Amino acid sequence: MSALSQAPIIGKASELNFAVESIIPDNQRDKTKTFFDLRVAPKSEQVVELKLRNDTTKDVTVEPSVNSATTNLNGVVEYGATKAKKDSTLPIDLKEIVSVASEVTIPANQEIKLPITIKMPDRTFDGILAGGITIKEKDTSKSDSNTSSDTQGLAIQNKYAYVVALLLNQNDQPVEAKLELNDVVPSQVNARNVINANLHNVKSDYINSLDVEATITKKNESTALYTSSKKNMQMAPNSNFNYPISLNGEKLKAGKYTLKLNAQAKEGKWSFTKDFTISETDAKKYNSQDVSIKKDWTWVYILIGILLILIALFLIFFIIRRNRKKQEERRRLEAARNRKNVRRKKRPSKDQIPKK
Fold first, then answer.
1. Concatenated DSSP letters for 163-198?
2. DSSP assignment of 24-72, as one string?
3. Separation between Cα atoms, residue 300 and residue 289, nearest integer Å
4. Distance CA 327, CA 333 (A)
């Protein structure tokens, strides 16, 4: 039966104002582990404890929470709070059977014990219930009402927390691993187009050292359009995640496609073939949002070319018109000079005037 090698911790001790230590109880399956891996019985109730230490000169308020384990898109098990929905195959949600105070203050330069109550339901299960206890410092910063929304949008804060794994087990009955392929749909990761293949661990045990190879073709064709492979992933019990197949900057094109996916882990091998469709609506939506797609500037270039031609024609017309005006002005001046000269010639000189 799978287990963790160490308690997962997000962040570093130097970045936190408190420290966390597990107090291992007698029903710990492996007392060398620093996280909780407990053998429990139906209808049993137990209180385990975490030691919280504050080495600073100020009181520190923390907010504990409990979550069932999930698997993220990188194939990494998450024990802290996520936005993932409760998995449909999860036999018991840790949130429903594990309770802890929502807020605790650790006095300056002191340590306290945080009790965590586990109340098992009147039912049996094989395998592992996996999750974690998250301890994060309460955010006491006050937002500045004079700060503009633009400035607030640029304010990025890194928040860290301790996450101690909590595994519950009732027996040593082996659980046969089973991986399923759910929906295959177009989507985006970090504003880049992908095809998501949802992989689902439907059993209450870990899937370890998971390697995946995926190929997408046009339906009823053999030429690979997109491929993806990734090794050494892990899936939490009763969890699913979207395995992303990148389009590498290409546009989504509407049509019918086929996904072939091979998965191999310590617990078994699986092969899947699934047809799926990309609609025109989805293709346009995701293509317009993909920051890696090279934009088609053809029409822009055409419009710029037309504009330059119009400007050139206008300049030519202006120059021709100006030249014509100058020519007409010169002709008028020449005509005026000619008329003046003619009048001078017709005027009699003094010698030609008869004397009286």
1. EEEEEEE---------EEEEEEEEEEETTEEEEEEE
2. --TTBS-TT-SSEEEE--TT-EEEEEEEEEE-SSS-EEEEEEEEE-EE-
3. 19
4. 10
Chain centroid to CA 176: 33
How wide is the angle at C-alpha 313 spanned by C-alphas 308 and 315, nearest 5°? 95
pLDDT tens-digit readout, 80-106? 988 889 999 999 999 999 999 999 999
230 burial type by CB count under 10 A (0-12 exposed, 13-18 middle, 19+ buried): middle
- The model's pLDDT over 140-181, given as tens digits with 9 standing for 90+, comes to 765 444 444 343 333 444 568 899 999 999 999 999 999 999
Tokens of 194: 């992908």
Q: How far apart are CA 356 and CA 346, in angstroms?
A: 22
Tens digits of per-residue pLDDT, 65-83? 999 999 999 999 999 988 8
Which residues, listed in sequence order, are joined to residue 21 by a DSSP beta bridge? 51
Name the residue with tokens 């293509």.
287
Strand residue runs (E) in the chain: 19-23, 36-39, 45-54, 60-68, 70-71, 77-78, 98-100, 104-106, 110-119, 128-137, 161-169, 179-189, 192-201, 207-218, 224-235, 239-246, 255-265, 268-278
Q: How many CB atoms lie within 10 A of CB 36?
A: 25
pLDDT at 9 > cutoff 70: no
How many CA atoms does the CB half-sphere of 156 hold within 13 Å? 1
For 323, the enclosing helix (H) or strand (E) is: helix 298-346
CA distances from 333 to 206, 315, 320, 325, 337 (A): 102, 27, 20, 12, 6
pTM: 0.77
- Domains for the chain: give ranges and CATH numbers: 13-139+158-169 (2.60.40.10), 179-289 (2.60.40.10)
Whether 51 and 58 have beta carbons less than 8 Å apart is answered as: no
Identify the CA nearest to 64 among candidates 158, 164, 142: 164
214-260: pLDDT as tens digits: 999 999 999 999 999 999 999 999 999 999 999 988 999 999 999 99
Q: Do the beta carbons of residue 85 and residue 67 sit within 8 Å? A: no
